[in-house]
DNA sequence: TGATCTAATCGTATTATTGCGATATAATTA
DNA sequence: TAATTATATCGCAATAATACGATTAGATCA
């Protein structure tokens, strides 16, 4: 049917998948790296840095914002984006727990 | 156009996004958790555990396999799936580096 | 106020994803 | 060999995602 059955899964499974899906795109990874490396924030510089149209960058920023991974502050004519620390920590926690739940082989198929 | 411009991004950006995209679905997270908790491997048990059709589970397994996150070994009539340790480590490394590149606020917008 | 600059949104074309019934494949058992 | 069991694949319908030109909205500057 083309519709994910979210009601079947746990809150945490859905929560982690939403956060990961927001990051799981090379353009959004590049945007986040740019935001992080610029220490503070950026805005339309991203359009120049990456080779994508302004509308496309804006859309990616919106998705990252919807997922709560970044936040945008209006600064005059520009908009300054930066990481949302709370969500970043949450993601680190959720994904860390998930990854650490697997402890090596010691016998498999 | 609806086609991700992979040629614009670095190998690592694309690599990480492929791995994350494979995991960024609640059903696939549930499948991985099931595989991990069963220590060894599983196969069609997943169809019973999760509430999805056999064709759907098989498709999700295929995607996880294509990304290199799991491997399947034929065991008679059944197929035994388990985590691919190398890819798991790679993901842990790539994502860990990515997450750690952000070091708290100390002044933002 | 009018011009300018920045960013968001709309509309649209293209492609990908999700889910499942039906069918095919492959190994095992009777 | 025929029946059974376990998976994979095909085909399809519905929905989501990607990208971008064009337009809109909002703030700043002359």
TrEMBL record, chains A, B:
Organism superkingdom: Bacteria
Family annotation (PROSITE patterns): HTH_ARSR_2 (PS50987)
Positions of the HTH arsR-type domain: 8-102
InterPro entries: ArsR-like_HTH, HTH_ArsR_DNA-bd_dom, Metal_resp_trans_reg, WH-like_DNA-bd_sf, WH_DNA-bd_sf
Pfam families to which the protein is assigned, alphabetical: HTH_5
Molecular functions (GO terms): DNA binding; DNA-binding transcription factor activity
Alphabetically ordered keywords of this record: DNA-binding, Transcription, Transcription regulation
Protein name (record): Metalloregulator ArsR/SmtB family transcription factor
